[in-house]
Amino acid sequence: xSTETETIWVTQEAYDRLVAELNRLKNxxxxxxTQKIANARxxxxxxxxxxxxxxxxxxxxxxxxxxxxEDRLRRAEVGEAPADDGKVEAGMKVTIRFQGxxxxxxxxxxxxxxxxxxxxxxxxxxxxTSPLGSAILDKFAGDTASYEAxxxxxxxxxxxxxxxx
Length: 165
Description:
16% of the residues are buried. The model has no long low-confidence stretch (mean pLDDT 86). The chain has helices at residues 12-42, 50-75, 114-117, 131-136, and strands spanning 8-10, 76-78, 92-98, 104-109, 124-126, 144-148, 154-164. It is of the alpha/beta class. Helix 1 (12-42) runs antiparallel to helix 2 (50-75).
């Protein structure tokens, strides 16, 4: 079980996908594994029964996935997708430019747990509570924001765009 207490902000669609995956694991995958274990037990000596040990390992992994999903669902806060108004908030795809740099960086402002919730996320993810995330939160495209890096250096960024993901 996770020791995290941070809320995971998700859309209704993402929440429904999590519930569906949890139900699939509990109602389809786990019973299938239980049947594999029972079949392997009927074969006799379990010490050298590769099928039994493989099924038990699969059961352990599935149990861990179930616990992880249950934890995420407990911490999930379902909300609407953010408005497309240029305001930086969780669930936004944000493009910034670091002061003095010509390159831009685009990332998703949200929970890192989105990576394991949604395999289609192909961006870096920054938490709204990270130094960069908290500096740009509630700012608008065109604004600048500064934050202190772990090395003590002040970093300034310009927000170029903020769009719902």
